[in-house]
Amino acid sequence: MSNYGEGGFHADDHQDQNSSQRVFRENCLKPVTIKQINDSVSANNDNEFSINGVDIAQVEFVGVIRRVDGERESSIDLTIEDGTGSLVFKKWTDSAQPHQEVVEHYSAMAEKWVRVCGSIKMFQDRKTITNPRIKLVANYNQVTNHFLRAIAVYADAQGLTANGGSGGQKSLFVSENDDSAGPGSGQFRNRLLDFLRANAPSMAEGVPTRYIAESMGVAFDVVEAEAELLRDDGILYNGTDDNTWMLVEQY
């Protein structure tokens, strides 16, 4: 029996492509809440966690730094809460930078919103975030945007529609086919992807968010929000830092 499906494509190749795309999506940053991190489960107790039935490699969450403990010379303990729960994790200090400088750096962030990216692991019988990257939230709209993205990812993982599935209620999320120019709209998404296709080949370290914003005549926050949505969809990934972007090859 032939292994070729409709359209002349080899069925196994198509399955391999779908499998690779699924793995890439699982390895992308997932916007979550701290409660979801605390409720995550692991089949092997240590390394591979899942949230709402979806395997997670990297997570992103926002929260307020409530406590900075720098008593140990090799690390500092950070306590962050986001309204759904709290989480304590370590930020290991670099021997090249004085410990007290690191403590002062994060102490200056106390009672402020930050964005954290990293991996969920078990450490001393509790969940923690390893290799955390911590960045101050510049605009509270980024907090709202994060929680909306977390809702969208949860709904997608559960097979729910963005509008709640019934009753004809208006969606919280803009349709990809919408012709408006804001983040999440089909028109703006296509413009951004076209810009990245044209510029990414000449920028090996990634296309900077600010360069995109200035070139397209769009606010920095708008570009950042749309790029993060595309990253969550497995279409973009970060270059050398959180403010540079690259296209996945097939796009």
From TrEMBL:
It comes from the Eukaryota. The keyword DNA damage does not apply. It comes from Diutina rugosa (Yeast). InterPro entries: NA-bd_OB-fold (IPR012340), RFA2-like (IPR040260), RPA_C (IPR014892), WH_DNA-bd_sf (IPR036390). Keywords: DNA-binding, Nucleus. It holds the Pfam family RPA_C. Residues 1-22 are annotated as: Disordered. GO terms for molecular function: single-stranded DNA binding. This is Replication protein A C-terminal domain-containing protein.
